[in-house]
Amino acid sequence: MESLLLDKIDQPSDLKKLNAQQVEKLCAEIRHFMLENISKTGGHLASNLGTVELTVALHRVLETPKDKIVFDVGHQCYTHKLLTGRRKQFDHLRQLDGISGFPNPHESVHDAFIAGHGNTALSLAIGMAWAKKIKHEPGLVVAVIGDGAFTGGMVYEGMNNIGGLDNLLVILNDNKMSISKNVGALARYLTHLRTTTAYYDAKDNVRSFLDGVPLIGTPMKKSLIGAKTLVRRAMYHSTMFEDMGFEYIGPVDGHNVEELERTLRSIYQRPGPHFLYIVTKKGKGYQPAEMNPGNYHGVSAFDPDGMPDPEVAPKESFSTVFGKLLVQEGTQNPKLCAITAAMKYGTGLQFFAHRHPQRFFDVGMAEQHAVTFAAGLASQGMLPVVCIYSTFLQRSYDQIIHDVNLLKENVVFAIDRAGFVPADGETHQGIYDAAFLSQIGIPVYAPSNYEELQYWLHYLLQDTVSGPRAIRYPRGGESAKLAQYPCTKREYDFLYETPGAEILLVSYADELEDILEAANQLNAASQNADVLRLVKLYPFTDKLIDTVSKYKIVLFAEECVAAGGIGEHLAYALQQKGWNGRFLHCAVHTACLPHATVPQIKQCTGLDAADLVQAVRSALTKGENEL
Fold first, then answer.
1. 282 is catalytic
2. Which of 282, 417, 472, 602 is catalytic?
3. Other C-beta atoms within 10 Å of 66: how many?
4. DSSP 237-304
5. Are 301 and 310 in contact (CB under 8 A)?
6. Among candidate residues 44, 54, 50, 48, the one with its CA nearest the CA of residue 23
7. Residue of 31, 60, 94, 395 marked active site
8. For this structure, is 395 an active site residue?
């Protein structure tokens, strides 16, 4: 059996020993390796299949970590991980104690920065490039940005501030939309010229010669530059990148390793900033992913000979149930609009987009714009529903405070992936929204099953309710156990009551399942505990505080940060009432959560049933010792 080249690549320097034929073979082996492994573990497939040649070429030319590669989002970093010593760890990709699905400096010196959210790479790269200049350090800083990131504003903010950095390269990986048009053989010829030293040498020689010609040299140089600009505009149709100060190169075939390598070597030898535009095919090398890259973007384990269940669109989930409910509401209310930020399928809005296309808005990877846009709609009498993952809603907090909440605009936030999220780890957890929305007094609702979602979504969309409000729900489907509890149409209610109980367990959403199991264990040991479900998380009613204050021990558990969380608000409210019982707040005390299953994350954070029971029993023991 022929040995694999990939098995001999333990660090980027090993790549430099390969010849052109071996490089082509290595790229094929990497694709086969990723397909075989991701089909078992799940992960981001199509985006990684599309960037194999680019990553190989980068590591053939660059010398990391002296040179820095900053990935935008990081969905395309698997080849990079394979080439930097992590091949043997791929069988535990995105699993507890395994490697992350995103770049992370804690994992490897070759990972320049963590990358879970989009639009950040260019700003980061500019900062790193300036740091190198200030410290007189050698090396190139490369930002690898997908075309999707160009729908977000940070990219343009960064481009407007490149400041003539000569150690910066931005690579636009276009696998969907065309930023710059390929206008045939002449454009390819110009690209070839611009990636040879002869072109640069000639340009420098002409510039130096004209600088030395008295009187007429400077005017001639200006005329030539002007003429060059006119020709350039005729050829490329857009000079945005060059107008911002970049040396523009492209388009280049992103699957031609030889051409990529030659281009990168030329760039490496020349002062920047450079902007390299490459064209790739998402899902390259695996026909189902090439034909339907959206379905193969993020996948669970699947049969590579069949069709996987795409992570973004399960058959039934809170997202799809919400999406179908919103269609019904939109049919009844012509003022209702749906807004998302590049997550139409992930938020279940494909149904609304199909039925009410004129009132559906996908603003791209631009959460800040989405919220202020919604405020503008609401100011003119419309009812916008902003549907964004919890982890991405963080990016729009200023707009929520200033543009929505100050004037109490009639905006509904539908917050998907709230609470713990499996596999993606610390970059994608929905553990902040309940805290930061409650901080500014926005009412927050958290249904625990589909029936509650249906009732409370309908309630929040009525004309009788006004101002900003939010409804949040977890990733995936409803819990079979929580589905057994009907919607009582009350903002809070008891799921379990025992006569004479002095212990109260309180929670909301998915954490209720662990609370119920904890109550069962306590009650089995005659440590009677009641279970209170919150649907409206904040603000509290006086009646709720009166109800909770009747108990001697109150445990509040939530998949939310402890500082500023709902439990902290409740503890303060009880204190203000004069309650002197024992309050236990079980919540998240660290932002660095593991990439693992939700039950495993709960174990790591002390939010599983066993830890909740132990917290109550410790409080009981402490109380007895104080008597």
1. yes
2. 282
3. 11
4. S--HHHHTT-EEEEEEETT-HHHHHHHHHHHHTS-S-EEEEEE--TTTT-HHHHH-TTTTSEE-S--T
5. no
6. 54
7. 395
8. yes
In the numeric block, the tokens 């930002």 are attached to 143
Structure tokens at 209: 């010669």
pLDDT-based confidence at residue 115 (cuts at 50, 70, 90)? confident
Residues listed for the chain: 627
Residue 290 annotated to the active site: no
Q: Summarize pLDDT for 420-475 with one digit per residue, the tens.
A: 998 777 788 999 999 999 999 999 999 999 999 999 999 999 999 999 999 999 99
Cross-strand pairs, 507: 533
d(CA 532, CA 511): 12
Phi-psi region of 551 (alpha: psi -120 to 50; beta: other; left: phi over 0): beta
Q: Which helix (H) or strand (E) holds 469?
A: strand 469-472
User: What is the rounded CA–CA span in Å between residue 457 and residue 447?
Assistant: 9
| 553 Rama class: left (phi>0) / alpha (psi -120 to 50) / beta | beta
Q: Cα dihedral sign for 426, 429, 434, 436?
A: positive
Please give the span between the terminal C-alpha atoms of the chain, in angstroms, as a whole number: 75
**Cα 552 from Cα 614, distance rounded (Å):** 17
3-class DSSP state of 421: coil
